[in-house]
Specification:
Elements lengths: L6 H4 L11 E12 L2 E13 L11 E2 L6 E8 L2 E8 L3 E5 L2 E6 L2 E6 L2 E7 L3 E5 L2 E5 L3 E7 L3 E8 L5 E4 L3 E6 L2 E8 L2 E5 L14 E4 L1 E3 L2 E5 L4 E5 L17 E4 L4 E4 L2 E9 L2 E9 L6 E5 L9 E6 L3 E9 L4 E3 L21 H9 L5 H4 L16 E3 L5 E3 L8
Antiparallel strand pairs: 1-2, 1-24, 2-3, 2-4, 4-5, 6-7, 7-8, 8-9, 10-11, 11-12, 12-13, 14-15, 15-16, 16-17, 18-22, 19-20, 20-21, 22-23, 23-27, 24-25, 25-26, 27-28, 28-29, 30-31
Length: 397
């Protein structure tokens, strides 16, 4: 369980240098539907444990404030950087993808990313409702195409609450109150018969398979074949090809890079390092040695809709994370599902032709996001070429 930081620390932050002797990153959640997806990458800086002297390279220690999340949003035009944050929650439905960062709620839909609003107090999201607790009150909000407060309940400090996707239970020393939740209000009832949690939407995913110089991604209903040579300029090693993972969106294939884990040290003037590269689906991978912090390459994702578009995501240096993807442009509003018209064939072709247009030029129609919580427990390759099981930092509801 990681620390719960004050709201100001949990708001979207630009990445800052972290004093460390390495890093590890893995995917905590890939959530979305249609052509929008929100990606949470769990970024963990590491440092040499000073207690292991005089052997300074004996193992890595995870700092007490682990872990941070790097948040990206992708649609058919590219992959965009949203922030470097603590404790986000994400959920996706037909209305879009909802992302809770600190006390602010964002919604992505149909290539548009908007800020729905913020709440006062400690917030908990169980889609489609958000509960925000202050010293003496619990306020309940409904999340749809907008965010509206449907009611509030006086609640003393010693009281606790359980939030479901249709119900609320408030437990206090002097008794328990139960409520049914609807988009228009909350209504007190004597009992709750069914306790439900809505299922979130997520895209299907598959590892790439290499056959005769072609990388193949297939989920059973769709298959993409891409020349392996197109990926090679963006990889450390040809073995990475089989560690790439395809995420099947409605009109395109999003291809995500593998998990990486890096550690380095200098012992009596001798430099040593290991870079583990593995698939976040199968855990298979390999290790590279003696890569200096200044030798890191950008980490790339790819968009494929007939042509392959590489997108630089971030640059690790062995001591900190630096975002390279363009920033998400946050809109004041996004279209409701009923207001979205299907593009004509001409419009679709035009979008594919102009796939390199920048995010800022496309925000009116294209920048928006999605989300559902997909918690992945992953095996990642750790230092010195040894497989080490790492607990993935989990997304809180």
């Amino acid at each position: 369980m990681r620390k719960f930081f004050p709201a100001i620390m949990m708001l979207i932050l630009t990445a800052a240098p972290v004093s460390a002797d390495g890093f590890g990153y893995t995917y905590s959640s890939i959530t979305g539907s249609g052509n929008d997806v929100v990606i949470l990458i769990d970024w963990t800086p590491t440092m040499i444990d000073p207690l292991c002297a005089p052997r300074p390279c004996c193992y890595n220690e995870i700092p007490a404030d682990c872990c941070h999340y790097v948040v990206f949003y992708a649609n058919s035009s590219g992959v965009y950087y949203l922030g470097y944050v603590y404790s986000p929650a994400v959920f996706s439905s037909e209305n879009g993808t909802y992302l809770l960062i600190g006390n602010a709620v964002y919604r992505a839909h149909n290539g548009c990313f908007q800020r729905l609003g913020g709440v006062t107090g400690k917030a908990k999201l169980v889609f489609p409702y958000l509960a925000a607790r202050t010293a003496d009150k619990l306020s309940i909000y409904h999340l749809g195409s907008n965010m509206s407060r449907i009611g509030s309940i006086k609640m003393a400090q010693e009281c606790t609450f359980d939030l479901g996707s249709r119900n609320l239970i408030v437990s206090c020393p002097n008794g328990t109150r139960r409520f049914n939740l609807t988009p228009s209000g909350l209504f007190e009832v004597s009992s709750i018969d069914i306790w439900e949690f809505m299922e979130s939407k997520r895209p299907s995913m598959a590892e790439g398979k290499l056959e005769n110089g072609t990388l193949i991604f297939s989920n059973g209903s769709r298959t993409y074949r891409i020349s392996a040579d197109e990926f090679l300029p963006y990889l450390y090693d040809r073995r990475e090809l089989k560690l790439l993972v395809g995420v099947f969106m409605k009109d395109y294939l999003l291809i995500l890079p593998p998990v990486m884990d890096y550690a380095y040290c200098v012992d009596n003037g001798t430099f040593g390092s290991s870079l583990g590269i593995s698939s976040f689906v199968s855990g298979s991978g390999f290790v590279l040695y003696d890569i200096k912090p200044g030798e890191f390459r950008p980490v790339y994702a790819f968009i494929y809709s007939g042509t392959l578009k590489p997108v630089p995501l971030f640059l690790p240096t062995g001591s900190y994370f630096r975002p390279l993807a363009m920033n998400v442009t946050i809109r004041k509003s996004c279209p409701r599902p009923a207001e979205v018209e299907k593009p004509s064939h001409t419009e679709t072709s035009s979008k594919e032709t102009n796939s390199t247009i920048t995010a800022s030029a496309e925000t009116e129609n294209r920048i928006c996001g999605p989300g559902m919580v997909v918690l992945l427990s992953l095996s990642v390759l750790f230092i010195r070429g040894v497989f080490r099981i790492v607990d993935v930092c989990m997304v809180k509801e």
